[in-house]
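Progress against Task 2.4 (sequence-to-structure conversion) is shown through the following example record, which the project officer requested during the mid-term review.
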Amino acid sequence: MKMFLCFFVLFILGFDDSSSQGNVNKAIKILTKQVKKLQESNKANFEATNMKIETLKNESQTNVKSLDEKITNQYETKVLKLENLIEQTNLTKMDVNSLFGEITNQTEFLLKAMDYKLGILKVGNAECSQYNILNEADRGISSGDGDNCDSTGLNTSPMWKGASWYRFLPPAGTILSQAAPGEDHCGTWLSGWCNATLPTVPGSTLDIEICFDYSGFQCWIAYDGKVTNCGTYFVYYLDNIRDCTVNLRYCGAN
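Structure tokens generated for the chain above:
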């Protein structure tokens, strides 16, 4: 456009003096119109540019606001999740502490029991080292009847020493029978068995009931006794049978 105007002016100036003043005026009018159009075009472009700038600014503000709200919402959501996680973690800590305590106790017990088994530690109970032995072959639960009685009076069993601490050893077995063997077993008439659970902690002692099985009655008569866990074996405090007119004997088992 600028080049066109320049050529146009040069063209007008190139007229000789004989040209009429009307042609000059006409050229000036044309130039004026072109300049005005150019100004209007620039103004329109400027206004359009301003509108685009405003639009971009509005869009930018909207996007920034939307992004800010999105970030804020995400932050609040994460904070809420974190608070819930902290609350759950606190509850879990209580459970973990309780569980850890149980596991620790069980682990200590297992390690202690292993030490006893390996002979690293010894149970300090006197009865675990000072006891009598019951190891008669016919004292075992699989044996039939006999005339043996655990008493220092009549029909005394070969290994019986009176009321004392005893340890069962093969071939009689390793423990006092935990089940009713029935009458006429263990080399006697009334077979004695432990009507109680054994202690699980090494060094601990429990009071027990010892029943004698007879004529379908698993606990026809009962004696009090004790049992101590010596780590790898058990020892029993067994009372002397008071009357052996009917033979009673403590029955061994594995």
